[in-house]
Amino acid sequence: MKLPYAEPFRIKMVEEIYQSTKEQREQWLKEANYNLFNLRSSHVFIDLLTDSGTGAMSDKQWAALMIGDESYAGSRSFEALQKTVEKITGFPYLLPTHQGRAAENVLFSVLVKEGDVVPGNSHFDTTKGHIEFRKAHAIDCTIDEAFDINNLHPFKGNLDLEKLEAVYKTHPKEEIPFCLITITCNSSGGQPVSLENIKAVKKLSDQYGIPVLFDSARFAENAYFIKKREEGQQHKTIKEICREIFSYGDGMTMSSKKDGLVNIGGFIALKNRDIFEKASNFTIIYEGFITYGGMAGRDMSALAAGLEEATEFPYLESRISQVEYLGNQLMEAGIPVQKPIGGHAVFIDALNFLPNIKREEFPAQTLAIELYKEAGIRGVEIGTLLADRDPETRENRYPKLELVRLAIPRRTYTNNHMDYVAAAVKNVFERRNEISKGYKIKREPAILRHFTVQLDKV
């Protein structure tokens, strides 16, 4: 008899979570102005808002915390992190930051200016926010297959080379600071980018003299999909694939709260010393000295250990298999989700799930609210609220996909929790035709509105 799959870890500590009533949840939603970001964590039973900084660290990481060096400059913790990053990525120059959006802020302060365009594959919210804050433009060059949820293309994060070359041909080189490849591509459903596509993007960009950078928050998960799905890659280790991926780029930003397996932290890694020196000045202004950049020494030590663990196949197989476990249950129930299932989350297609909700009434936000009311599960809208307003016309932008993301924290929940989530989604699906009204905006900030927007029932 073939032995069933078992997770390659055992549990040492548990945290109690509170299961509320539906009446309580409806009151809490009203108090939160129907924005799930405003809910207290103690009011959430299963929290799938994000996989960023919400995972469980290993015994080795907790041990690393205890030997962290808190020296202001040149700490042993920085040295350990620098060696680990260079070993995995090949980039010799490292600037720690307190998280990924801080890395974007520092690096884009050097590279992005007003009037620039930054092509890439479905830039995520903070990335687009940092670009547009500087009065530049993010241009989405993702392949069309990414926007058909039933298309089983194995690498829906890929860039369309014709779209990318059109950007290169219609804008002068001086207005294109870099091409940004997001791995995996969160906004298209946690979808990976193939090694073949990365190579082709690099070759095309070199022809036009455009640098290539990586938004690398989930680079290890991307490497796992390359190993599993791309011809000729099965014999390679995850670390070998990662090293090759980054060999086709000029630098990277990293939110270490994802594939770094830590609760806080980020970094910039670069090939170019001149850019490193310019970015160092902004690091000192915005973050801290260049050998800690907003991170405690102990957190850098834990990150060095986490990067080693995250680039091992058994861990990645366990992590991604759990996401697939949830996704498969929803697909079997006929629930519309982005296929194939992504690396860090299951993305539900709210337009097909709630066909009675108008686009201007935010179908994905409506679905996320219904799921919380049903079972105390907090997901997040990846749709019109997140797409924000056009910075020039101030009109709502309606993305091709209107999704609810159920992001699975790493090493945090069991498959019993996934069964509970699946049952709750099915319950909402069964009563979907009863849901006919969505939400309207009461108050919103000028940028990145989904974090703090206040809503009301239509």
> pLDDT under 50 segments (min length 5)?
none
User: Element order, helices and strands?
Assistant: HEHHEHEHEHEHEHHEEHHHEHHEEHEHEE
Quaternary state reads single chain
Number of strands: 14
- Output the radius of gyration: 21 Å
State the distance separating the first and last CA atoms: 56 Å
Strand order of the largest sheet: 2-8-7-6-5
> If helices are DSSP runs of H or I spanning 4 or more residues, what is the number of helices?
16
- Helical content band: 25-40%
Shape designation: globular
Structure characterization notes:
The structure is a single chain. This protein is α/β, with parallel strands linked by helices. About 40% of the residues lie in helices and about 10% in strands. It has 16 helices and 14 strands. Strands 2-8-7-6-5 form a five-stranded mixed beta sheet, with helices on both faces. Helix 5 links the parallel strand 3 and strand 4. The model has no long low-confidence stretch (mean pLDDT about 95).
Compose a concise summary of this entry:
The protein has 458 residues and is an alpha/beta fold.
Overview features:
458 residues, alpha/beta, three-stranded antiparallel beta sheet
Helix and strand arrangement:
Blueprint: H1 22-31, E1 46-47, H2 59-66, H3 76-89, E2 93-97, H4 100-111, E3 117-120, H5 125-133, E4 137-140, H6 161-170, E5 179-182, H7 195-208, E6 212-215, H8 219-229, H9 238-247, E7 251-255, E8 266-270, H10 273-286, H11 297-310, H12 313-332, E9 345-349, H13 350-353, H14 363-375, E10 377-378, E11 380-382, H15 384-387, E12 403-407, H16 415-430, E13 439-443, E14 454-457
Parallel strand pairs: 1-10, 3-4, 5-6, 6-7
Antiparallel strand pairs: 2-8, 7-8, 9-12, 11-12, 13-14
